[in-house]
Specification:
Radius of gyration: 22 Å
Helix content: 25-40%
CATH superfamily of the largest domain: Aldehyde Ferredoxin Oxidoreductase Protein, subunit A, domain 2
Structural class: alpha+beta
Distance between the termini: 25 Å
Strand content: 5-15%
CATH topology of the largest domain: Aldehyde Ferredoxin Oxidoreductase Protein, subunit A, domain 2
Number of helices: 25
Largest sheet: 6 strands, mixed
Length: 615
């Protein structure tokens, strides 16, 4: 009921696969997906293990609502130790792959060991095979997807794969499913590459049962009405996608620009949702073709875009290549504002390459921005870059850099290290806009104070999807708070972190929380699975998950000293916009946050906290 009750364990070293029952005691405490898989990871591996070594494990996990008719019930997560950060990593993806895994009868797939040769995995219900991938090794995600489907004569199979970037262990490489949906952050693709696992193809013929069908249908239908009637989930996201935020955040003075030196980008309007929808001057056609939904989603925030056929980037590309997953806000920011590039077609091309080769566009764009600052300061030159002129605003530099990084060639190998390692290599580590080694996303901590605390305390390194206080500080959801003050932000961040942990573990998309609270989600979970699932229980589960992840990181060697922001955010005041003159007030928020969490001043959960959460 909700859960299938089955776990698939794949040992790549020995080439075997086995079925085992889901630990239902853990499921009651950690729900599913992010929480439950992180519990398995925490119990089964040493957090100090090499992220790219055979002792690391990688888990593909669904939630109890994945594969159901609950709106957005198509999510899955990839949980492992992240090679970019060395911290626990959970990367969430949509599309159809997660639902297909549930239809095949599995709650999660635990992959361990290391294959001596390139392989791929096929899951046809209970028929699980580890197969030779030598023919498709060295190919892109898109080529691998087509090859697996063709080889098995099944166009309805859903494939999650890595590109050449993952094979070459680019530290922020992604796992891409359904061609342009991605488990994108922290380098989960590099972990698959280290294990010589190219792809996982899934085909299921079953379904997902629920505890109380009538109650479930009522709860999910009530939830869908709330989403439809909400201005964000019913109008904004379906019409403009996440790109609706570009001009909003820029006007708020919180758009990190040119590696965080500025907080507003003069080219924002040229790479915004509105620009994507406008007819081009060259051919009269818009960049955006249509929106697209993931499995069981009533929001449909996804974008499908087509590049101008006359644009230099696609002159030698096949026709089919020119239309694919369009720009999301985070990608448009990282590839645009962070690098100073305002050419919409070039950004779309770069995003396509990220999809094709399996690259996190957030970390890639931010790393290019850091490299551009190194270049401007004379710390790297054309001799080191192989002739690439890495100047802010250079369209050619951006599009060439993504090609090199995707293939792990030339200077692309250095860009594949991520900005923390790249800037450290050239003696200026402070130029990396990272937390715990992961590049922070599209919100400047000086202009949105809560996001500074969010980044600093995120268990997977800087991340907006662990505590999206922008929802409150900028959009007024569920209530408006002042983005420029630090008061009350510790409690706000904790509340968002705990709630999001529960949502991520349910199988639902976090975008529903623009309209839903846990009061809307609890009845859906309660009708789907055994137990008494109240709002209060979901919050407790979320808090337990957050503390478990923190304890994994503590055991891996992370301390309170790692809960920090780049020096630039703490010392260089915003130059323009509403936040002009402000720096991040992290030092004011962090002690209060630790106290609210029930942690020691060293950032370690106390015994009382561990006992209270029954950990």
């Amino acid at each position: 009921m909700g859960w299938t009750g089955k776990v698939l364990r794949v040992d790549l070293t020995n080439g075997t696969s086995t079925s085992e029952p889901l630990n239902m005691e853990w499921a009651d405490k950690y729900l599913g997906q992010r929480g439950l898989a992180s519990k398995y990871l925490s119990e089964e591996m040493d957090p100090k293990a090499d992220a790219l070594g055979p002792d690391n494990k990688i888990i593909f996990a669904t939630g109890p609502l994945t594969g159901t008719c609950a709106s957005t019930g198509g999510r899955y997560s990839v949980i492992t130790k992240g090679p970019l950060t060395g911290a626990i990593a959970c990367s969430n993806s949509g599309g159809y792959w997660g639902a297909e895994l549930k239809f095949a009868g599995w709650d999660m797939v635990i992959i361990e060991g290391q294959s001596p040769k390139p392989v791929y995995l096929t899951i046809f219900d209970d028929d699980v095979q580890i197969r030779d991938a030598s023919e498709v090794w060295g190919k892109s995600v898109w080529e691998a997807d087509a090859w697996v489907k063709s080889t098995h004569q099944d166009p309805m199979m859903h494939v999650a794969a890595i590109g050449v970037a993952g094979e070459n262990k680019v530290l922020y490489s992604a796992i891409v499913n359904d061609l342009h949906r991605a488990a994108g952050r922290s380098g989960v693709g590099a972990v698959l590459g280290s294990k010589n696992l190219k792809a996982v193809g899934v085909r299921g013929t079953g379904g997902v049962s629920v505890k109380d069908f009538k109650a479930f249908m009522k709860a999910t239908n009530d939830g869908k009405k709330v989403l439809k009637d909400n201005a964000v989930t019913g109008v904004g996201l379906p019409t403009f996608g996440t790109q609706v935020l570009m001009n909003v955040i820029n006007e708020s003075g919180a758009l990190p620009t040119r590696n965080g030196r500025d907080v507003q980008f003069e080219g924002a309007k040229d790479i915004s949702a509105e620009a994507m929808a406008e007819p081009r001057k060259s051919d009269g056609k818009p960049n955006l073709l249509t929106n697209q939904a993931c499995f069981s989603c009533t929001i449909a925030c996804g974008r499908i875009s087509k590049i101008d056929e006359k644009h230099y980037t696609v002159q030698n590309k096949p026709q089919y290549w020119q239309a694919s997953g369009g720009l999301e806000y985070e990608a448009a920011w990282a590839l645009g504002a962070a690098t100073g590039v305002s050419d919409l077609e070039a950004l779309t091309y770069t995003n396509f390459i990220c999809n094709e080769q399996g690259i996190d566009p957030i970390s890639f764009g931010a790393t290019v921005g850091a490299a551009m600052e190194l270049y401007e300061l004379g710390l790297i030159d054309k001799e080191k870059t192989g002739g690439l002129e890495l100047v802010f605003g250079s369209t050619e530099a951006l599009t060439t850099a993504v090609e090199l990084t995707g293939k792990a060639e030339g200077f692309g190998k250095e860009l594949g290290l991520g900005s923390a390692r790249l800037t450290a290599k050239y003696g200026r580590p402070e130029l990396a806009m990272t937390v715990k080694g992961q590049e922070f996303p599209a919100y400047d901590p000086r202009g949105v104070q809560g996001m500074g605390l969010t980044y600093a305390t995120s268990n997977r390194g800087a991340c907006h999807l662990r505590s999206y206080t922008v929802s409150s500080e900028i959009m007024g959801v569920p209530e408006k708070t002042d983005p420029l003050v630090t008061e009350g932000k510790a409690a706000l961040v904790k509340a968002f972190q705990d709630a999001t942990s529960a949502v991520d573990s349910s199988g639902l998309c976090v975008f529903t929380t623009f309209a839903w609270t846990l009061d809307d989600i609890a009845p859906q979970v309660d009708a789907a699975i055994p137990g008494d699932w109240t709002t209060e229980k979901l919050l407790e589960v979320g808090e337990r998950i957050w503390n478990m992840e923190r304890m994994f990181n503590n055991r891996a060697g992370f301390t309170a000293a790692d809960d920090k922001l780049p020096e630039r955010m703490m010392k260089d005041a915003a130059k323009t916009g509403p936040a002009k003159g402000l720096v991040s007030g992290l030092d004011k928020m962090l002690p209060e946050y630790y106290e609210l969490r029930g942690w020691t001043p060293e950032g370690v959960p106390t015994n009382d906290t561990i006992d209270r959460l029954a950990m």
